[in-house]
Write a structure and sequence with these properties.
- The complex is a heterodimer.
- By secondary structure, chain A is mainly α.
- Chain A has one helix spanning 3-63.
- Chain B is an all-alpha fold.
- Chain B is 78% helix and 0% strand.
- In chain B, helix 1 runs parallel beside helix 4 (110-129).
- The radius of gyration of chain B is 23 Å and the shape is rod-shaped.
- The model of chain B has no long low-confidence stretch (mean pLDDT 89).
- The chains are: A mainly alpha, B mainly alpha.
- Chain A binds chain B through residues 1, 6, 9-10, 13-14, 17-18, 21, 24-25, 28-29, 32-33, 35-36, 39-40, 42-43, 46-47, 49-51, 53-54, 56-58, 60-61, 63-65, 67, and chain B through 2, 5-6, 9-10, 13-14, 17-18, 21, 25, 28, 32, 35, 39, 42-43, 46, 49-50, 53, 56-58, 64-68, 70, 74, 79-80, 83-84, 86-87, 90-91, 94, 97-98, 101-102, 104-105, 107.
Chain lengths: 67, 147
């Protein structure tokens, strides 16, 4: 067997493996993208909750007379 | 002998191809677990803050008659300055989380994803450190194996 006859199937095998891995990663990324979109909503909620706490304190201070 | 070489080459390629993707998947899972921990910890802070604010409200505590008395009643961990600090750390954490997720989405290589995960871990520790009773060391435990 020549070196070429050995290497070509190996290289073809490598290409197949890389393609399959990339397809699997692409499918995972689509799933992650969906979760990231959901995550953006959660981030906004977290900020709103945190700001609400600050606003609560300021609302009380607004009611108090100036020092 | 040649068959062995062929097999070894194929296995090496499989390992090379899979290792990076697996690390990123593990990192993503770690990031998701961390997000839950930060969300839960922030809620814990928020509940405590709400209770303290209600307690110190002049409607419930007639001794509080000025802004400084309100801040003193709330204490260092729950006064206005502290609440603003927590809010800002939450924003910083969420920015780090977006950067981390984006790195994965665009198919960044492992070293970049790892760097973003480290930044995310630091941001998470900064939030958790502000919450009375919460231990930032939990971040390292949750990300064990991911970093």
């Amino acid at each position: 067997m020549s070196v070429k006859e050995i290497l070509i199937p190996v290289i073809e095998g490598i290409v197949r493996v890389v393609k399959t891995s990339r397809e699997a990663v692409a499918a995972d990324l689509e799933e992650i993208a969906t979760k990231v979109r959901g995550g953006a909503l959660i981030a906004d909620e977290a900020f709103q909750r945190a700001q609400h706490s600050v606003d609560r304190i300021r609302e009380i201070k607004d009611r108090l007379p100036d020092e | 002998m040649l068959k062995l070489v062929k097999k070894a080459l194929l296995v090496a390629t499989l390992l090379l191809g899979c290792t990076s993707a697996d690390r990123i998947r593990v990192a993503y899972a770690g990031g998701a677990t961390l997000k839950q921990a930060v969300t839960d910890t922030h809620k814990l802070y928020d509940d405590k803050l709400e209770a303290r604010v209600t307690e110190c409200d002049p409607k419930n505590d007639p001794k509080v008659t000025t802004d400084s008395q309100l801040d003193a009643c709330l204490g260092d961990r729950f006064n206005e300055e502290a609440a603003i600090r927590v809010r800002d750390m939450i924003v910083a954490y969420n920015l780090a989380a977006s950067a981390f997720s984006e790195a994965i989405l665009i198919g960044a290589e492992w070293p970049v994803v790892q760097q973003k995960l480290r930044a995310l871990a630091d941001a998470a520790k900064a939030v958790i450190a502000l919450v009375p009773g919460a231990d930032p060391a939990i971040v390292d435990r949750l990300l064990r194996g991911a970093l």
